[in-house]
């Protein structure tokens, strides 16, 4: 069975093709296009490339397309990417303006281009369906909550992969198996000692998630992907009073305030040199104080959420770093883990500095393991698409 995973941006289209033999997927092709103005043409070019490379003989060899959709309000989980999903994406586009409109347009074009091919949406919010109500709820009037002002959580595919893989690395196949089946069967009790994981997805967009027995119980992100840690050019957490204050003080319109908070804030605003941590790091090493402060603020926020979740979980069996910054910036990992020996976390600095693609960088005597786990969101989307279709039409998945 061949499943195409489509990653859609405002002007980009990236794809990866997975082939399933039973439930074991193999990534057999990937590619993408930038400066996309016509998703229909991009889809045609994708299929042409897959045929030319010998991965597909015809469109009939493509059995499903999976999408890593972001936010759909009350629509979440792993579902058919139909007109209802398209409408939900557009209805919440103001909360995820960089993601929702492209996915709505792309799904519509896939439906037009590939009639009869199942389209499946895995929402980033799906992993947070079971966080406690007291965590999801903001202290706002009931009407606001009913209108959708609540903590949603994002980077769900990445954190779910961390939940699965960290359980395997900790020799807890029971937890790994239950986590894989989460979207089909929901959370179930895990016999024996609980497994407590804190997952740090650190990249251009960053979040920290608390995971107990493979299920998310808390997240640093909230109503939108703009919240939580300082993002590359998005503000992160902010006192709500700042918006009316700046409206009065600087005379900025609501639209201009929103633009500046989502495009000119975050690490970009703090550093003054850019939104790429590699450039900020270079400036900091050259003595730029603003760049140093930006890095310190980023680390402080990561540690703040780790500390909160450590207490909420009652301890931590594994602290995990993933995504571009988490996987590749050893100095960030070292700074985040500094001074935690009294909590049972001791970093092996030598292993951290030379960490391979997947490894445990904690010292041998550390009670808490520290893993670097490469992100694999596309794999999660492919797996969940396959499981969703298997539950609905087993004969199709046997193809």
> What is the straight-line distance between the termini?
5 Å
Q: What order do the strands of the largest sheet run in, or round the barrel if closed?
A: 3-2-1-4-6-5
Largest sheet entry: 6 strands, mixed
Q: Tell me which CATH architecture of the largest domain applies here.
A: 2-Layer Sandwich
Please identify the structural class as seen in this structure.
alpha/beta
Strand content: 15-25%
| Number of DSSP strand runs | 12
Q: What are the secondary-structure elements, in order, as H or E?
A: EEEHEEHHEHHHHHEEEHHHHHEHHHEEHH
Question: What fraction, in percent, of the residue positions are helical?
Answer: 40-55%
Q: Which assembly state applies to the chains in this document?
A: single chain
CATH class of the largest domain: Alpha Beta
3D shape: globular
Low-confidence stretches: none
CATH superfamily of the largest domain: ATPase, nucleotide binding domain
Name the average pLDDT.
Answer: 93
Radius of gyration: 21 Å
So how many helices?
18
Number of domains: 2
